[in-house]
Design a protein that fits this description.
- This protein has 173 residues and is an alpha+beta fold.
- It contains five helices and eight strands.
- The protein has helices at residues 20-25, 45-49, 52-57, 77-93, 157-172, and strands at residues 10-19, 27-28, 31-35, 59-65, 68-75, 103-111, 121-124, 130-132.
- Strands 1, 4, 5, 6, 7 and 8 form a six-stranded antiparallel beta sheet that branches.
- The protein is globular, with a radius of gyration of 20 Å.
- The protein starts with 9 loop residues before the first strand and ends with a helix.
Length: 173
Amino acid sequence: MANQGTVGTTQTLTGILMDRLCADQNFALDNNSLVINKHPMDHTVHCLVHPQVCIDSGYCLMQPAGEVWECKYNFTKVEGKKLRDWYNAKEAADPVGWKLTRFLNVTGTWVAGETTDADPVFQVDESSFTRIEDAPAGMMTTSAPPSTTSAPASAGSASASVVLLALAAVKLM
């Protein structure tokens, strides 16, 4: 995955900050049942900013890619530290309200990489960080799988009728 951007351009990115360890293994270090590419918004701030192995893995900004989420932008160690410090301070001030990472707006400027052939690097503006509780317009969210005893909310009345008939047939047996 290559970072995207044109040197000298200022841009606001929206997504979910994720440590590369959890993103790459597709489950959270502190909750191995959390599928990161389906539910990254449920990743904990604690996992993001406290385990050294997560910190050392680096950070990316996840965005939707079809039916799943993937890392779209990698942050340098310096930029990742700014983001981690911000989340850490917010979590310390309000541990209950800042339990989950949720969505993030971050503004920055694309600057040249360290070598001439390197991808541009996104240099963040620390005063721009904004956490968003609910999915911004255009950002997909995924919900928990529907219960096996009820039809999905999006099912039409015909689907619901089939489920009810099937349940009735099971009760008759």
